[in-house]
């Protein structure tokens, strides 16, 4: 499809309007990160229970999104070199290092990718902000969106670059509007579909947001073969009102915490945002509370990083994610439902799934590691 075809971020950043005190903190958090008590998403996916087995060290997650604040104190120790594929004009791609400001040096409302990155792998136990699902994994910032949108071709280029540069996992908290599956099903657009297949062939997992328009199927690119589609749950493990149902032909679909988007800040997902851009209404300067399948997706990408750090293959990582995901209330595994897919991802169960290597350090080795 031609270059002007746009993909919007799957989360319209359904942001809470006010900070209320009705949501209790988590009594058993074990890190010293000040906002850990608000991170009910980590508790829902049983992240801390997995850290005794894997913290993601050696795994790399590409955040293919709006770019990342490379100076954020809760992220910079976990960053590896990234790239920019939007706004490159005649200079060719890539034309930057994945910074959220892009080639023009301006923040054009592109805080989203920084928030996603923090959910995946914010540094834990540093006395600052939040902890990521995989706190020792590395984040590869890949900017393919500007002002919340981008072309299929730029997104496809970002996927391919990520796979070629050592990403174990590609997180795509972005998507087209409901119904845009038709353009890939009819072959009018194939660049992202082909890029996902390319990444999978290199052993890279692609995790994508289901979408936020409450329709019965995953939007593209989550709809595409080989991508794991992620729907959103609230803090009570109910489907978030805005979330697409996680249904797609290959049944690669799960659920994860994405927030309520209606009630209060603390009912949404707190994570990093570019320094100084946090909402005053939620009481934080360098952090903010967002809701959307965009926030659910990096919870799953973080769990995938924990698994790749155990030396697993792509096929085994996907089996571990899907087979150990649990249906709410019943806790049943191995059961598919149209509301939750295979269920809410469970980090503690996934890292115990058979198939881990005797030594980990990620599928592609311990590259990008910083002391």
Structure description:
The protein has 371 residues and is an alpha/beta fold. It is 21% helix and 13% strand. Strand 3, helix 3 (112-121) and strand 4 (138-143) form a beta-alpha-beta unit. Helix 3 packs parallel to helix 7 and helix 7 crosses helix 8. Residues 1-28 and 365-371 have low confidence and may be disordered.
The average pLDDT score comes to 89
Largest sheet: 7 strands, parallel
State the helical fraction.
Answer: 10-25%
Write down how many β-strands occur, each being a DSSP E stretch of 2 or more residues: 11
Integer-rounded radius of gyration: 18 Å
Q: Give the ordered list of helices and strands.
A: EHHEEHEEHEHHEEEEEHHH
Question: What is the structural class?
Answer: alpha/beta
Please mark out the parts with pLDDT under 50 across 5 or more consecutive residues, or reply none. 1-28, 365-371
Strand order of the largest sheet: 3-4-2-6-7-8-9
**Rough outline:** globular
Q: State the end-to-end CA separation.
A: 43 Å
Note the total helix count: 9
- Beta-strand percent range: 5-15%
What's this model, at a glance?
The chain is of the alpha/beta class and 371 residues long. The chain is 21% helix and 13% strand. The longest helix is centred in the C-terminal third of the chain and has 16 residues, at 293-308.
């Amino acid at each position: 499809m031609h270059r002007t075809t746009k993909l919007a971020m799957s989360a319209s950043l359904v942001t809470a309007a006010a900070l209320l005190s009705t949501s209790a903190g988590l009594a058993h958090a074990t890190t010293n990160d000040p906002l850990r008590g608000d991170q009910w998403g980590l508790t829902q996916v049983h992240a801390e229970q997995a850290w005794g087995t894997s913290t993601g060290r050696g795994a790399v997650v590409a955040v293919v999104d709006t770019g990342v604040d490379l100076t954020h104190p809760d992220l910079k120790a976990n960053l590896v070199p990234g790239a920019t594929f939007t706004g490159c004009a005649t200079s060719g791609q890539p034309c930057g290092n994945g910074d959220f400001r892009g080639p023009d040096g301006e923040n054009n409302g592109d805080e989203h990718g920084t928030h996603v990155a923090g959910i995946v792998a914010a540094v834990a136990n540093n006395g600052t902000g939040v902890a990521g699902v995989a706190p020792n994994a590395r984040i590869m910032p890949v900017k393919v969106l500007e002002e919340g949108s981008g072309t299929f071709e730029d997104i496809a280029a970002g996927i391919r670059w990520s796979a070629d540069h050592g990403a174990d996992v590609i997180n795509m908290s972005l998507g087209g509007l409901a119904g845009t599956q038709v353009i890939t099903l009819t072959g009018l657009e194939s660049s992202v579909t082909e890029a996902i297949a390319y990444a999978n062939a290199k052993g890279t997992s692609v995790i994508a947001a289901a979408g936020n328009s409450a329709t019965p199927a995953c939007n593209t690119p989550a709809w595409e073969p080989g991508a794991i589609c992620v729907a959103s749950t609230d803090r009570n493990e109910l489907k978030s009102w805005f979330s697409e149902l996680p249904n797609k032909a290959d049944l690669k679909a799960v659920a994860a915490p994405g927030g309520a988007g209606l009630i209060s800040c603390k009912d949404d997902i707190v994570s990093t945002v570019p320094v100084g851009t946090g909402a005053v209404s939620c009481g934080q300067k360098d952090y903010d509370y967002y809701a959307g399948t965009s926030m659910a997706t990096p919870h799953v990408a973080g769990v995938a990083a924990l698994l790749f750090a155990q030396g697993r293959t792509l096929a085994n990582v996907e089996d571990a994610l899907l087979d150990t995901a649990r249906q709410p209330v019943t806790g049943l595994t191995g059961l598919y439902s149209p509301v939750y897919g295979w269920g809410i991802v469970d980090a503690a169960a996934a890292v115990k799934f058979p198939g881990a290597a005797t030594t980990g350090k990620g599928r592609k080795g311990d590259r990008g590691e910083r002391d």
